[in-house]
Amino acid sequence: GECHEGSIWESAMFAGHHKLNNLVAIVDRNRLCATGFIENIVRLSPLEKKWEAFGWDAVTIKDGHSFKEILSAFKVCRLRRAKKPLVLIANTTKGKGLSFMENQPLWHGMAPQGKQAEIAKRQLRQEK
To answer: Which own/partner contact pairs does 8-13 have at CB distance under 8 Å and 24+ positions apart?
Structure first.
């Protein structure tokens, strides 16, 4: 949802213009914001092309919950010799692993309480 904000794009434009090639941004692409689903409010797709239009290289992490994929993307950071900043777009699921929270915009600004908190703890322990 933060990619709906002008300050994100102003910063992206500045970094691309000045070729800040030692800068890496990570976008948690969970497709939700406080008021609903991103693409229903203001479409961001194709997100990679938007960052590239601002002078960035873009790498998409297919499963942003996979440490293996994240670390692989960071290896790209060390090896690259580009004259552009880099954005890593990590596709994630908001509330992943919690049956009642997954992909539910309502939970954007709330924490589970009472019985729901106990269910969440139990489900997260099972994820390990």
So the answer is: 9/54, 12/51, 12/54, 12/56, 12/85, 12/87, 13/54, 13/55
Q: How far apart are CA 42 and CA 87, in angstroms?
A: 20
Helix (H) or strand (E) holding 94: none
Report the distance separating Cα 86 and Cα 75, nearest Å.
12
Reduced to 3 states (helix: H, G, I; strand: E, B; else coil), residue 87 is strand
Question: Does 128 score more than 70 pLDDT?
Answer: no
Tell how far CA 100 is from the center of its chain: 21
Q: What is the pTM of this model?
A: 0.87
pLDDT per residue as tens digits for the range 86-100: 999 999 999 999 999
Helix spans in the chain (H): 6-17, 38-41, 47-53, 67-79, 114-127
Q: Are strands 57-61 and 86-91 parallel, antiparallel or unpaired?
A: parallel
